[in-house]
Design goal:
The protein is mostly helical. The protein has one domain. Helices cover 92% and strands 0% of the residues. Helix 1 (2-112) packs antiparallel against helix 2 (123-143).
Length: 144
Amino acid sequence: MKSSQNAIKITKKKEETLVQHDLMKLEIKKLHDRLVSEANQVFTEENKLYQLEISIKDREKEIQVHKEVLIAEHKSAEEERHKSAIELSQKLTRANNLKLKYESIVQRTKKTNEDASTDEHSQAYYVIKTAQEKEELQRQRIYY
């Protein structure tokens, strides 16, 4: 009987050990599944981060290209403005010279034609007036 009690105790202990072993296996499997899940989540987040970094680099390149285009457009507009300013200056100088020439001719004709009527104009007056009108028409054509 003693040996049968010992056998029962040993069998009971063996069964408890097997149950403990199975419980530990289940706990290990549960922990392993959790570890795999966490690793997958980390991998997913790292992948998202990598994709964002690529997107940022691409966007920075696009911005740089756009910036270079804007700089080129600005430079071109500035050159065009400068050309227009020079042209305007030249035309103003030319108009001033024509005005001075006209005034000079008027002064000379006044001295020589003091007897002439004030309503009449000399040929030089009409030549200068025509030149000024032509210049004005050319200026209007450039701006339209």
